[in-house]
Specification:
The protein is mostly helical. The protein contains 2 helices and no strands.
Length: about 70
């Protein structure tokens, strides 16, 4: 139960961070500071890293709790 709650709140923080990065990328694209190719690449990378980090979190927290409690 604890691992689920910690993972859930950590995932919320990660998604807020990803959303903020996407907003910055949109602003940079409208100001013509980055190209569309760089925009797509950075957008895809940001989303991929955020989703993969959120998916790995429960396993990492489970291993951490097992090593601390045992």
């Amino acid at each position: 139960m604890e691992v689920f709650l910690i993972s859930f709140f950590s995932a919320i923080i990660i998604f807020i961070t990803v959303f903020s990065i996407i907003k910055v990328l949109n602003i940079a694209l409208t100001r013509k500071e980055i190209s569309k190719r760089n925009y797509r690449l950075m957008m895809t990378g940001t989303i991929f890293i955020g989703v993969s980090a959120s998916a790995i979190l429960p396993f990492g927290y489970q291993m951490l709790f097992e090593s601390i409690l045992l």
